[in-house]
């Protein structure tokens, strides 16, 4: 596969300029176009790294999630909830991981109709190797330092909250040292 020739201008900046001339400035148009292009670039990079392991990034994420669980297994509904994907996508992902010998399925003893996906020893070895490779290429974000990666995370967080990915936790009470007062005594 040959790499396309590089343009001598930023097509998103050009589109932003043309958009502004025709309909007025809409900074969100350039932002979303940049985000969508970045997603294409990053997905292409990380998929290329995990492909030799027989994975896509989505399958890699499912394996990582299983390694994070205490028992190495989760219900398919829990996987979908945590990865924020449709149940059909979870079933397809687990089907492919199972065919590759990276996960196994078993009935969920707590839910007669439910199924648990469990990572296999082979799955653990594959996820460890793929993780080393992804970390080595900084998940495709090598153009950014740690602080900039944190800024990207923080910039996108309000969008994720507004979409209902999660609810913002209640702010904790200020520690006494910050409030200038003494801590209240409990129970007495």
Structure description:
The protein is 57% helix and 7% strand. With 188 residues, the protein is mainly alpha-helical. The chain has a single domain (12-162), classed as Winged helix-like DNA-binding domain superfamily/Winged helix DNA-binding domain (Arc Repressor Mutant, subunit A, Orthogonal Bundle). Strands 1-3-2 form a 3-stranded antiparallel β-sheet. Helix 3 (57-68) crosses helix 5 (87-99) and helix 3 (57-68) crosses helix 6. The N and C termini lie far apart (73 Å). The model is unreliable at 177-188 (pLDDT under 50).
How many strands? 3
Q: Unreliable runs, pLDDT <50, ≥5 residues? A: 177-188
Q: What's the CATH topology name?
A: Arc Repressor Mutant, subunit A
Q: Choose one word for the global shape.
A: globular
Reading the helices and strands in chain order gives HHHEHHEEHHH
Q: What would CATH call the class?
A: Mainly Alpha
């Amino acid at each position: 596969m040959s790499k396309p020739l590089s343009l001598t201008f930023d097509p998103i900046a050009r589109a932003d300029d043309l958009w502004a001339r025709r309909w007025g400035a809409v900074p969100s148009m350039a932002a979303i176009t940049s985000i969508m292009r970045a997603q294409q670039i990053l997905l292409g990079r990380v998929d290329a790294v995990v492909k030799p392991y027989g994975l896509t990034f989505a399958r890699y994420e499912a394996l990582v999630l299983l390694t994070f669980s205490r028992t190495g297994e989760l219900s398919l509904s829990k996987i979908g909830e945590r990865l924020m994907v449709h149940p059909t996508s979870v079933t397809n992902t687990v089907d492919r991981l199972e065919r590759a010998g990276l996960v196994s399925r078993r009935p969920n003893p707590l839910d007669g109709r439910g199924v648990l996906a469990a990572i296999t020893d082979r799955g653990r070895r594959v996820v460890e190797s793929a993780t080393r490779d992804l970390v080595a290429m900084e998940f495709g974000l090598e153009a950014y330092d740690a602080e900039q990666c944190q800024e990207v995370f923080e910039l996108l967080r309000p969008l994720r909250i507004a979409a209902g990915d999660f609810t913002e936790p209640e702010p904790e009470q200020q520690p006494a040292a910050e409030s200038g007062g003494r801590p209240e005594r409990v129970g007495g």
